[in-house]
Structure prediction request, 348 residues.
Amino acid sequence: MSESVSKPTLFPTTVAGSLPKPAWLAEPNKLWAQWRSQGDELAQAKDDATLLALKLQEDAGIDIVTDGEQARQHFVHGFLEAIEGIDFDKRVEMGIRNNRYKAMCPTVTGPLRLRERVHAREARLARAHTARKLKFTLPGPMTIVDTVADAHYGDRAKMAMAFAALLNDEAHGLEADGIDVIQFDEPAFNVYMDEAADWGIAALHRAIDGVSATSAVHICYGYGIPANIAWKETLGGEWRQYERFFPALAQSLIDRVSIECINSHVPLRVLELLDGKDVELGVIDVATDKVETPEQVAAIIAKATGHVPKEKIIPGTNCGMAPMRRDIAQKKLEALAKGAALARAKFG
Prediction:
C-alpha cells in the first residue's frame, strides 16, 4: 500500500472518473476502444492498468483518486454486461441524449437482475494499493435508460427504478470494499431537465438507499468527442440547463455534485442553486489537448468561491478523460493539483 499522505483541508482535487487506457490494454484515443487481449491475459492487463492509473494520479498530486475505469470499455456498458435481462446480441440503433447522436444499444428483454458483483475486483485492487480517498463511478439510472432499448418495461421511469435497485446492490458492495465516494454519472440530466427533477433524482435516491459512503452525481455536457462539441456550439452564450433541476437536486439526499465549468458557458452563479452541497468544480477541459496553467485553474476556483463556500469546493475535471492522450492527461492532472495548491495558499 502507498505511504499515507496528509489530505488538504481545502480544495482537495479529484477526477470525474475515467483516464486514458494504455496502448497495450486497448486502442488509444478512442472512447469505444477494443481490448488488445482476452481471457486471463485481459484480466491481468486490466489489473495492471488500474494500478498504473492510481500511480499516475498520485504522482500528479491528486487527492481523491479513482480506478480510472480501466477495466471498463464504456462507462455505461461496463455495468450492463453483468445484468441478466439485457440482450447484447439484439442491438438497436437509436438516438441517445435526445438524439444528439446515434449508438447501437443493447435491448432490455426481461426483468433485470445482477448475475454477480460487477466491480469488486478493480475496487478491491485499488483500495489495497492506495491510502488516499478513493472514488468509484457508476452510471446513473437515467443515463442507463437513455443508453438501452426497452422491449420489456414500457416506461422509462419504471425501468430506471429497476436499474437503480441493481446499482444500489453494487453500491453497497463498493462501500464494503472500502470505497469512500460513490459517484453516479448522469450526463442525461442536462438533456432531460424536467424528467431529472421528476423521477431522475428519485432513481438516484433508490440507488443510494442505505449507503453510508459519500454519494455524488456527475453532470456534464459529455466527453470531448465531435458530436458533443458540435452540440455545445448550439447552446448559445449561456448554458442555463442546470437551473431547471438544481433546486430539486439541492433538496436531494445526494452529498456532492460534479459539474463542467472551465471553457463552458455555464454561469457560475447557478452554483448558488446547489446550496448545501459539496461541488466538484470542473476546472480541467477534457475537450482540448491544450493544457491549462495552474494560474488558470486557481482563477476559476477563486471565482467559484463567490458562489460556493470554499470548504465545499473540490476541483476536478469537466468529464472523463478516456479518449485523451495519456501524456496530455498527465500534464492536465499536474496542472489541476498545482492550481489547487495556488488557490489553497491564497484562501487557506
Notes: The chain has one domain: 39-347. Residues 209 and 240 are 30 Å apart (CA to CA).
